[in-house]
Write a structure and sequence with these properties.
The chain is mainly α. The protein contains twelve helices and no strands. The longest helix is centred in the first third of the chain and has 37 residues. It is elongated.
Length: 270
């Protein structure tokens, strides 16, 4: 791959995945039972990242929290991309009053700050990992819907689609077999950015205390707790989760930029 930043993004993402999902098998800690006798221990050989207010080893908690942050971010981003792709493709291909109605729904929802919607839903229901995926994905699809609609408007007038419709092909088949496959480059690139956005949304909600309840952990919740404890001199609680969030978001952004460049080069060659 010619894009070096994309390579860096892939390396960072693989490292974070290995750290979060394989790390707990190497660095075994108890992230369920509290140990108040070992609370607020500074970094040492026994606890490289120190411990928090209830005695959890921060290195082990960072690994467990990474699982939640990555899992929710990826699944919510994929869900939002899928929903937005289908909505935008149907609206753009059918056109007419259907397109107008569907896009007015999108415009109406986009006029409301997404973070406000997330906070509203998170306060109505008790947050959990599956619910966070649904809540974030259910409101993050608006951007992909508008993007894919624009792509569909350009594709629906192509000769092969007109020929298929002239032969009696259905709208569903046109969207499934021609529109979405030909917009797959846009869909894939957008999906990487959606995942990055979803990771940030998870961090926002958790930072505001609306994430999955304990003993579940995620980097946003750790950052929120670390910020409070840092004022008491426990500086080691804020830097690891903050750096982890930055690295994860940057990795998906770098990968998205690389994929976008790769698809643009392929289209120019065509």
């Amino acid at each position: 791959m010619e894009n070096r930043l994309a390579v860096v993004g892939i390396v960072i993402l693989i490292a974070l995945l290995a750290f979060s999902f394989f790390g707990p098998f190497v660095w075994v800690t108890d992230q369920v039972h509290t140990d108040l006798m070992n609370s607020y221990l500074a970094p040492s050989s026994e606890h490289p990242f120190g411990t928090d207010s209830v005695g959890y080893d921060q290195l082990g908690r960072l690994m467990v929290g990474g699982q939640t942050s990555i899992l929710v971010g990826v699944l919510a981003g994929v869900f939002a991309t899928f929903l937005g792709t289908v909505w935008g493709a149907v609206a753009g291909f059918v056109g007419g009053w259907v397109d107008t109605l569907m896009m007015r729904v999108v415009d109406s929802l986009m006029s409301i700050p997404s973070l406000f919607l997330f906070m509203l839903m998170a306060t109505i229901v008790t947050p959990s990992v599956p619910l966070l995926i649904v809540i974030i994905g259910a409101f993050a699809w608006l951007g992909p819907a508008r993007l894919i609609r624009g792509e569909t408007l350009a594709l629906r007038s192509r000769e092969y689609i007109l020929a298929m419709r002239g032969m009696g092909g259905s709208t569903g088949r046109a969207i499934r077999a021609h529109i979405i496959p030909n917009a797959i480059g846009t869909v894939i690139v957008n999906a990487t950015f959606q995942v990055a956005d979803a990771v940030l949304y998870v961090a926002y909600l958790s930072f505001l205390g609306l994430g999955a309840p304990p003993p579940a952990a995620n980097w946003g919740g750790m950052l929120s707790t670390g910020l409070t404890d840092a004022y008491s001199g426990n500086w080691w609680l804020i830097f690891p989760p903050g750096i982890a969030i930055i690295l994860l978001v940057l990795s998906f952004n770098f990968i998205g930029d690389g994929l976008r460049d790769a698809f643009e080069v392929r289209l120019r060659k065509r």
